[in-house]
Amino acid sequence: MATVGRPAEVRLPFFVYGTLRPGEHNHDLFLRGRTESEEPGRMRGIVLYDGPGYPYAVEEPGGVVSGEIVTALPEAYEELLAALDGLEEYAPGDPRNLYERVVREVTGADGTTVVRAWVYVAAPAVAARLRARGKLIESGDWHGG
């Protein structure tokens, strides 16, 4: 369990669903050379909304999103965590955050393996705006639209 104010102590994989997925522009910029493994996965309890060139994940019971489970190289973990927090403009406890980094369960491609992973979800105010007037990505897959 993460200690408040010190989330880096929990070295979990990351669940990525947008521009950090293989083939997307931020994958090479942020993940290349820093990962031990990347494998397909699905996260329940979230849905995707279209954003300005990237998607937002919004917590929603019954939703399912496709993405990748990314495990950082141990020696690159702290650097990668800081880089992804920077990319997502996330700072623990900052009320101006567009995203919050939370721990959720992800199912691997085999359908049976379940791991806990960090995922960036829309902050509450952003999520409320998206639910009110955002464009839902019904497939749950930003690659597939």
Automatic annotation (TrEMBL):
Asked whether the keyword Acyltransferase is assigned, the reply is yes
What is the residue range of the signal peptide feature? none
GO molecular function term, any single one: acyltransferase activity
Name the UniProt key words of this record, in alphabetical order.
Acyltransferase, Transferase
Instruction: Return the SUPFAM superfamilies for the record.
Output: Gamma-glutamyl cyclotransferase-like
Q: Which CDD domains match?
A: GGCT_like
This entry's Enzyme Commission designation comes to 2.3.2.-
Record flagged with keyword Acetylation: no
* Domain Gamma-glutamylcyclotransferase AIG2-like, first and last residues per copy: 14-143
Protein name per Swiss-Prot or TrEMBL:
Gamma-glutamylcyclotransferase family protein
Record the organism.
Streptomyces lutosisoli
